[in-house]
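User:
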Amino acid sequence: MRCTKWALGAILSSLLLTSSAWAVGRPGPTRPVSRERVEVVGSGTVTSITATNGAQTSTGSAITTTGTIRGARCIKHITATSYTVLTGDRACLVTFSNASPIAVTLPQAGTTGFEADWFFIPLNLGTGQVTITPDTSQIQNAPDIDLETGQGIEVTSDGSHYFYNPGIGLTAETQGLAQVGANGKTDTTAVSFATAWKFLDGNGDGFAIYTDPTDGPKFVCVDNNVENACTSYTRELAANQTIVYQDSGGTPIFTLTENTGELTNVTLDVESTGNAVRILQYRFIPFAACQAGTASTIWDLPASNAPVAACKGTNATKGVLEFADGATDLATTLVDYLNEDWVGGIEAKVLWESASTSTNNVLWGIAIACAGPGDDSDPAFTDDDFAVDANNATANTYNETAFNTVTTTGTCTAGDMMHIRFKRRLSQAGDTLAATAQAIGIALRLREEQ
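Assistant: Predicted structure:
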């Protein structure tokens, strides 16, 4: 071999070596080692050539006259939980094996011994995760790379940073996950459910994350590999934990507490477009009033078969409508307004008492008919009876019926006038109290949406 001013390192660095892919427990495809012909021009004498770092002589001894240099791969086994890569690890398969995580430090690319084209092959044979972190440089545009059990890569320096070629154990998908999880790395391809990051179990159930070009970021539930097909979505909070959203200044604007289900720091703007809150609206309407010992009705009374207003009580004087016992129904009416926020459903209950100690029943009836603009202002009624209510055994104590869902006469619409007729149904066999029943007021439960 004739050489002029050629160092051994220059000769060896001209060798192009490629590695085959592998994974622990299964063979990888066989790749032939690529070789380049080395042509040396000049004259002179070389007294001894020793091949190292990815090359060897065919005899294993130094070449002093003529001989053959061939590609070689050394192997090194590391069992410690930390390791700093050496320049002598060039072209070596370096295995790591430990049950605990292993931190591998890779000197800065471009420094002495780690110039452009320097490479090594790390392989994780243990159960602990191997994290390779370059000093100052990046690896595949990320600060580090994690290798799980059975994963190996070929890491190469370009003189400034490191790049790697994934082996069989490190798929393109897990490779991307490692990069996206690293600081400063962005995945711009997850723009639909088809290209989303999916976290699924063996049944194809889980969730997916992607950024829709129109709707923006999406976090969707996945059932049997179908987007938004989940019948329910559960986010379980640990005991006594909360979910808190903060504004840009760090002030909580939404807090959900696990043990009470209580929402705090929340403003619900029902006047904003698209917002709606459905609530129960309770309205209590007394039947009568008592002013300076004189009773008067609040409700309207018919010309006949009407109850009578009376004052009752000495400590707390109140007005009542007295429905005396008899054979004919006694009735009173009232007109009220059905709010524009009303969305359906009217329920009613009656508060009443009696001076009697009999525990027999009283049967109350209610009818509601609505009329809006252009409708007859004197609508007809259809009675809707409450369940019979037994009187208390103690005189002059409050009786309260259960809430009764009122079947209205005709159709009621938000903004209508609500005509209410209230009766003691003396004509019905269910009313058995042979005494005066004193009606104090009626409570209405309405459903409204704002």
